[in-house]
Amino acid sequence: MGGYILRRILLMIPTIVGIMAISFAVIQFAPGGPVEQVIAQLTGQGDSADQRLSGGGDMLGGGLDDEGGGKYRGAQGLDPDLIKKLEKQFGFDKPPLTRFGEMMWNYIRFDFGESFFRNTSVIDLIIDKLPVSISLGVWILLLSYAISIPLGIKKAVNDGATFDVWTSGIIVIGYAVPSFLFGILLIVVFAGGSFFNWFPLRGLTSDDFWSLPWYKQILDYFWHLTLPLIALSLSAFATTTLLTKNSFIDEIKKQYVVTARAKGLNDRQVLYGHVFRNAMLIVIAGFPGAFIGAFFTGSLLIENIFSLDGLGRLGYLSIVNRDYPVVFGTLYIFSLMGLFVNLASDLIYTWIDPRIDFERRDV
User: Fold this and answer.
1) Are the C-beta atoms of 121 and 54 separated by less than 8 Å?
2) So which domain of life are we looking at (predicted)?
3) What is the pLDDT of residues 186-232, one digit of tens each?
4) CA separation for the pair 320, 46 (Å, rounded)
5) Half-sphere exposure in the Cβ direction for 157 (13 Å, CA)
6) DSSP annotation of 242
7) For the chain, which domains are there?
8) Of 60, 20, 18, which is closest to residue 38 (Cα–Cα)?
9) In the predicted model, what is the mean pLDDT of residues 114-131?
10) Bridge partner residues of 114 (DSSP)
11) How many Cβ atoms from other residues are within 10 Å of residue 14's Cβ?
């Protein structure tokens, strides 16, 4: 097993380099980069330039000129020296391959640099946004698995019965309704929209959170999380429920189950003593995808709808604002975590079923 783990870790190196290289190449052709973003501010097409330039007024020393702006759209009339200063500030005065090599060397040392427009380091930004994403990701993952696995087992045992039919209908409808649309409905009904004002609409905690007793802090925390978690959970458990059901049905039909029953074991002993371990393997295989989805991507729209300042919203705003250090830094961290979570999933496989031996298989 040690050799297999080592090979998988070594394979992560070209994988992460490939992910970053493709993303870096795509970004080179994307219009509206950070230099153009600043030019838009200087020409009066956006917010104050002081919010965009880390150098403040010093960066504007060239002023305006009748010279053309060159390769940047909207730069006509700006001093070419100013354009060069902007390129140097954002690191675009170097060839793309040099910039990519320097970026990867820094990332290997977990040096992600500073945000172009926020005047803070990328890692500090990520740490600042983590509590929201951890809250949404961990709770929705635990909630969805706590619902889907028992429900899937119950549906497998009662396959074709009334319970199975009506719960399947609810699951299909819930899966078909987008979580963000359901979130908007919850806001309209329960968050001061047109009906009730029972739940807060913004933030993870109240303004007086730290002055509350510990038990009220817990209540306040879940009070803020109630609507986002309900919106996310509507479709979160659908896939896992049906996957669990089908996996258990397949295992129940196998010969070893018939043999176990012939030996006098009751249904509960057969189900949890023999079927459970084998049936749960395929469910565990989907855990890494569910983890990454719930933790990073699944909450993007929900964070924006409920004004929760988490990693999803950070990534979205960074892409819109072309804040490349934040975009690439978060991509690198998320990709690395995804690779390690997949490795952990394989190790859990061997823990649940010792018959699985990845050491004898080609990676």
Assistant:
1) no
2) Bacteria
3) 888 888 767 888 888 777 888 888 888 888 889 988 898 888 888 88
4) 13
5) 13
6) H
7) 32-117 (no CATH), 123-320 (1.10.3720.10)
8) 60
9) 84
10) 121
11) 10
